[in-house]
Amino acid sequence: MNDKHILISDKNKTICDTLKSLGYKLIYTECVDEFISYEQNHADMQCIQVEDTVFILSNCKKLNNQLKTITKNLIETESLAHGKYPHNVLLNAKVIGKNLIGKIDYLDKKLVNYCVDKGYNLINVKQGYSGCSILKITDNAVITTDESIYKALQNTEIEVLKISQNGIELLGSKRGEQGLIGGASINLGESILFFGDISKHEDYENIVKFCNSKNISINYIKDMNLTDIGSGVLLNI
Question: E strands along 70-206, which residues?
Fold first, then answer.
């Protein structure tokens, strides 16, 4: 198993260089013209991994061919993603332990059926951008900025910390839209890398306390605002 590949947007050199310095080989996302401009290169819109299987948008033909060179367990979505929400969130979900969290009715059927066959619990939430909105800490702990996700997880085995969305920029936004915590970070296993200076976030102390309680360390890129670039997908293949 090679866990050194990360699928990520190439739109922020500082983030990419940081991940390279940590020893990761980067695979860059494809530009999906159908999406809103600031979503076109988001990894969490194009790809998700469940166990040893990687799901990819059928829109992304070049990326599909590239991933075939490093994994045989690759599945294209049944449907093409479209630019208008919620038809753009076919793969924008989050796997937490044996749970798939997302707007289930709008996720790709192949992804949902695969998870059902593998015994995953489907947690339906109102937020279609679930992958963007959730930062996985462990297999039973997450951080989110979204109230509907926070409420949906209250009666599950997943512990959730809700934080403010303030202070998270969305790369490429021209109208001041705020970013989401899942898109502004990546779980690297025993640590979280935040894409910017998380120490300036108003809930920083709670974030540190929560992560420390799960034995997860925090790293962040200094001298840069916390920025949502669509996270990155750590490919355990």
Answer: 74-76, 94-96, 99-102, 121-124, 134-138, 141-144, 159-162, 169-170, 185-187, 191-194
